[in-house]
């Protein structure tokens, strides 16, 4: 081998290490991918996935068109597996679920759609509709609690859509949760424009909750907005019929004397028809008879108010029936004020009694009995001048009433004593003269005038008054010193048997007889108080007469008159008591006093004038020590 060949071989060996690196570079250049190639391959994969997902989607749509919803769900699910961020795929599968009545799955898919596109309100509204359909299915199966939960979700997603609220309300009603339903309807009425339907709806809820009064007023509001609302009018008529039945039952109970039961029945009638003045009048009378005067006054005032606000004639004039009802309410209100005042008076609350009587007088100014009673209250409070003014007003209204004369006599005598204590003897004598004018049969008045005349040195008049006082009350020891000073050196027998005494006695008897004939014994109410208070329909006229008679018997005796017709049995018992008292309290036969009996001053009318009992009599206090 030549050296040249050896050199070549050495050179080739020296160059061998460089071959592997060049080959590796070439191989890397051949088989390695550039970034452009990688991006191209990635885009190609996405397109393949999208294309495959679209294929599944189109298959699902085709299945839906062929009503094969289960296959459609499978296709849409495959598409969603490939494309999890596509909202339309969830919507499509949700609609397929709806066709299969799988509401839970449909709701889940629409929730995904809402999360992917929260700005799109249509998805939220469709989800609310899914909940609505789910709730409706629960309702059809009687599962109202689950239905209520579904409807509540629908309302939360679409709060302005009323049908969802109405279905929730229906579920609350079916579950018996009327209070929750009531709050829901009330919120609608407060937040929206009220309508007749809403008021009728709430009225029905009140009816279910046994709140008839609130039900009545809601029905009135509904008819005010829509007078032709048939539902409201039918329910209102039903309530009015129930009120009438309760009133008739109350009348029956009142006739039987069961006032508490009658009160419960008429209260039921008022709850069903709380704007009926006749019901308030009836209940006010029952309260007054049960001596619950505060409640009676409140009801009677409402009766008067409803009469004023009641239906009027088209020309503006009230119908005759309404006028009569209002008049009866005024009468009963006056009676309630007076009865309450009598009760306060008997318990010593004179100021309260005065206030009540003042209210009664404000209602009816032409009744003397009210002024008499208020005058008695002023008298007990030592308001002499106010008492005198009331007695004088009563005298103007009823000038021949004996009860008024007796009180005027007492008040003038009281004022005369005060003038005498203040050393105003002339004024005292004048006051005592007025007392004698109004009641000439009281010895004390003559005795008091004797003292005043004696101070005025009018001895002749004082002597006649002293003899008059002795004739009226022979056993009055206070007259003895005055008689001894006026008739020095004479005994009482000499004074009594004197001619002057006989003349004074004749004049005194004539004066007393004239006073008796000029006075009437009883104060009667005006014709307004004689009207029948309870008025009923023609069908219940018999019951009405019985109730009216019962009311009159109750009113009689509310104001005890000065004179009244006594029951014969009671009169016989009183005569027996008097006879027994005289037998057990006989005076000694050795009595050495004056042998003259006092005049028997009676303030009763003749029997012929007392054949009938007045329908109403003002009850008075008898608080002045008089036989009233």
UniProtKB/TrEMBL annotation:
Keyword Repeat: yes
Ranges for region Disordered: 1-23, 536-555
Domain of life: Eukaryota
Pfam families: TPR_16 (PF13432), TPR_2 (PF07719)
Matches recorded under Gene3D superfamilies: Tetratricopeptide repeat domain (1.25.40.10)
SMART domains xref list: TPR (SM00028)
UniProt TPR repeat ranges: 87-120, 128-161, 368-401
Keywords: Repeat, TPR repeat
Protein name, per record: Tetratricopeptide repeat protein 16
Lineage: Eukaryota, Metazoa, Chordata, Craniata, Vertebrata
């Amino acid at each position: 081998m030549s050296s040249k060949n050896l050199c070549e071989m050495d050179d080739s060996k020296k160059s061998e290490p460089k071959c592997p690196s060049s080959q590796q570079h070439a191989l890397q250049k051949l088989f390695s991918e550039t970034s452009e190639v990688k991006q191209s391959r990635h885009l190609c994969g996405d397109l393949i996935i999208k294309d495959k997902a679209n294929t599944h989607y189109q298959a699902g749509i085709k299945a839906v068109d062929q009503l094969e919803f289960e296959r459609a769900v499978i296709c849409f699910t495959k598409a969603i597996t490939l494309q999890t961020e596509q909202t339309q795929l969830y919507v499509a599968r949700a609609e397929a679920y709806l066709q299969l009545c799988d509401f839970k799955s449909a709701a889940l898919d629409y929730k995904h759609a809402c999360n992917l596109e929260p700005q799109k309100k249509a998805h939220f509204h469709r989800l609310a509709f899914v909940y609505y359909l789910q709730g409706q299915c629960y309702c059809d199966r009687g599962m109202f609690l689950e239905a209520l939960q579904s409807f509540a979700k629908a309302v939360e997603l679409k709060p302005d859509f009323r049908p969802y609220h109405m279905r929730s309300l229906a579920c609350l009603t079916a579950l018996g949760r009327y209070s929750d339903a009531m709050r829901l309807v009330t919120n609608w009425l407060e937040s929206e424009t009220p309508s007749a339907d809403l008021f009728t709806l709430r009225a029905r809820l009140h009816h279910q909750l046994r709140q008839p009064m609130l039900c009545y007023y809601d029905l009135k509001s509904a008819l005010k907005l829509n007078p032709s609302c048939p539902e409201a009018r039918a329910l209102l008529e039903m309530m009015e019929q129930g009120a009438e039945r309760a009133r008739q039952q109350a009348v029956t109970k009142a006739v039987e004397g069961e006032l508490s039961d009658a009160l419960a029945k008429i209260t039921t009638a008022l709850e069903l028809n709380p704007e009926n003045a006749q019901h308030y009048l009836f209940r006010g009378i029952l309260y007054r008879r049960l001596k619950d005067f505060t409640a009676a006054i409140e009801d009677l005032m409402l009766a008067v108010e409803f009469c004023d606000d009641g239906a009027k004639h088209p020309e503006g004039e009230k119908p005759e029936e309404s006028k009569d009802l209002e008049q009866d309410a005024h009468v009963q209100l006056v009676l309630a004020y007076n009865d309450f005042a009598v009760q306060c008076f008997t318990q010593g609350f004179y100021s309260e009694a005065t206030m009540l009587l003042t209210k009664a007088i404000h209602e009816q100014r032409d009744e003397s009995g009210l002024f008499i009673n208020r005058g008695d209250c002023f008298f007990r409070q030592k308001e002499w001048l106010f008492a005198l003014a009331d007695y004088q007003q009563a005298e103007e209204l009823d000038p021949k009433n004996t009860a008024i004369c007796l009180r005027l006599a007492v008040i003038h005598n009281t004022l005369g004593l005060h003038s005498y204590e203040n050393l105003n003897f002339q004024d005292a004598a004048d006051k005592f003269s007025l007392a004698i004018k109004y009641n000439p049969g009281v010895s004390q008045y003559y005795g008091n005038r004797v003292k005043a005349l004696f101070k005025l040195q009018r001895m002749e008049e004082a002597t006649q008054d002293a003899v008059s006082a002795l004739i009226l009350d022979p056993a009055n020891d206070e007259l003895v010193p005055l008689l001894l000073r006026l008739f020095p050196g004479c005994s009482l027998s000499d004074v009594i048997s004197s001619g002057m005494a006989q003349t004074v006695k004749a004049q005194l008897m004539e004066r007393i007889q004239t006073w008796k004939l000029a006075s009437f014994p009883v104060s009667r109410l005006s014709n307004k108080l004689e009207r029948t208070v309870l008025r009923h329909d023609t069908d219940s006229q018999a019951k009405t007469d019985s109730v009216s008679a019962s009311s009159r018997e109750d009113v009689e005796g509310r104001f005890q008159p000065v004179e009244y017709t006594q029951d014969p049995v009671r009169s016989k018992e009183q005569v027996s008591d008097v006879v027994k008292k005289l037998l057990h309290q006989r005076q000694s036969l050795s009595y050495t006093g004056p042998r003259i009996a006092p005049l028997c001053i009676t303030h009763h009318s003749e029997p012929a004038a007392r054949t009938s009992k007045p329908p109403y009599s003002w009850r008075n206090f008898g608080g002045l020590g008089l036989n009233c």
